[in-house]
Amino acid sequence: MPLWWVENVERIMRDEGLPAREATEKSMGEISGALVAIALVLSAVFLPMAFFGGSTGG
Description:
The structure is a single chain. The chain is mainly alpha-helical and 58 residues long. It has a domain at 3-38. Helix content is 71%, strand content 0%. The chain has helices at 3-16, 20-46. Helix 1 runs antiparallel to helix 2. The longest helix is centred in the middle third of the chain and has 27 residues, at 20-46. The protein is rod-shaped. The two termini are 34 Å apart. The mean pLDDT is 88. The chain crosses the membrane at residues 31-52. GO terms for molecular function: transmembrane transporter activity.
């Protein structure tokens, strides 16, 4: 698990008093949108490189 995920789960457990499983589910609910957005942005930026000729593409 990435460190930021563990820290977020620990924060939720401390602040809200939730058990580990519930805190993990809540943490993933909070950050899943950001993870999807990051994946889409990186795909939009780097996928077109596959279609360029020369040293950047195939």
